[in-house]
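Renewal narrative, Specific Aim 1. Our central claim is that a sequence can be written position by position from structural information alone. The example that follows is taken directly from our test logs and has not been curated for this report. It begins with the structure tokens describing the chain, in the order in which they were read.
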């Protein structure tokens, strides 16, 4: 008699070839007795690999891990979309711009594509924007920086990415950040991200910071840039009045969406 684990592995290999199998079909393909196949199926169901249904068995779709970027893109999405709409007025036909791989810039890039503005080219290290571009028929052009893929951040990063950003000739840069304070400017959580953001700040004569209101008051180890390097700091209507007042008193160009 075949070892139970060997039997189950063979059975699972058969099951994975299609979504649904009848019990009769499985008995014929495996040559296994009725009681034995039910015992093996019960074991596979307990392991979460299959689901027994009326008249047969179906495989359970593989669960993909929830990445850090998936969490970010679902948090405060309404605020980020409002920021994206406010930032659109800083895009003109024919512009060549850089957008970073942040979730806020993803919504902004999507808004630019939807606007279908003639002659606009977006350079980006965002994998999500590359995927979005593939699904639409926008006249907007997209250029990828290339680089090493960071699955968690859904971004292209590393020396190759940083060098590419430093060499391109864009007119405007749009970036976001994990934290933002009036005193120290914007900051991020990783030195891996830091290189790309610093290169982006230096790459264009016009720079814009897109940061939702929840980021103000947060400060992280890796400092990207002071707020006075930006032509505009674009946020949403959720920003605290006291924080907005401090920014304006410092003579910084604050834009509040809505």
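The sequence written for that structure reads:
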């Amino acid at each position: 008699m075949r070892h139970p684990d060997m039997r189950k592995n063979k059975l699972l290999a058969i099951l994975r070839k299609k979504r649904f199998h009848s019990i009769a079909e499985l008995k014929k393909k495996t040559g296994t007795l009725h009681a034995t196949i039910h015992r093996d199926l019960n074991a596979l169901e307990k392991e979460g690999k299959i689901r027994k249904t009326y008249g047969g068995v179906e495989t359970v779709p593989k669960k993909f891990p929830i990445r850090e970027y998936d969490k970010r893109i679902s948090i405060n999405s309404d605020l980020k979309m409002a920021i994206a709409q406010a930032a659109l007025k800083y895009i003109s036909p024919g512009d060549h711009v850089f957008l970073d791989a942040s979730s806020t810039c993803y919504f902004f890039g999507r808004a630019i594509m939807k606007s279908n503005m003639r002659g606009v080219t977006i350079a980006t290290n965002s994998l999500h924007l590359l995927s979005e571009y593939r699904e639409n028929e926008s006249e907007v052009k997209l250029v990828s920086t290339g680089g090493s893929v960071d699955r968690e951040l859904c971004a292209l990063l590393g020396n190759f990415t940083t060098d590419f950003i430093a060499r391109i000739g864009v007119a405007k840069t749009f970036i976001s950040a994990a934290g933002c304070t009036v005193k120290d400017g914007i900051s991020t959580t990783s030195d891996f991200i830091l290189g790309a953001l610093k290169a982006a700040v230096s790459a264009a004569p016009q720079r814009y910071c897109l940061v939702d209101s929840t980021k103000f008051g947060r400060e992280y180890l890796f400092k990207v840039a002071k707020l006075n390097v930006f032509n505009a700091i674009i946020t949403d209507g959720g920003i605290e009045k006291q924080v907005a007042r401090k920014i304006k008193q410092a003579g910084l160009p604050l834009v509040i969406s809505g």
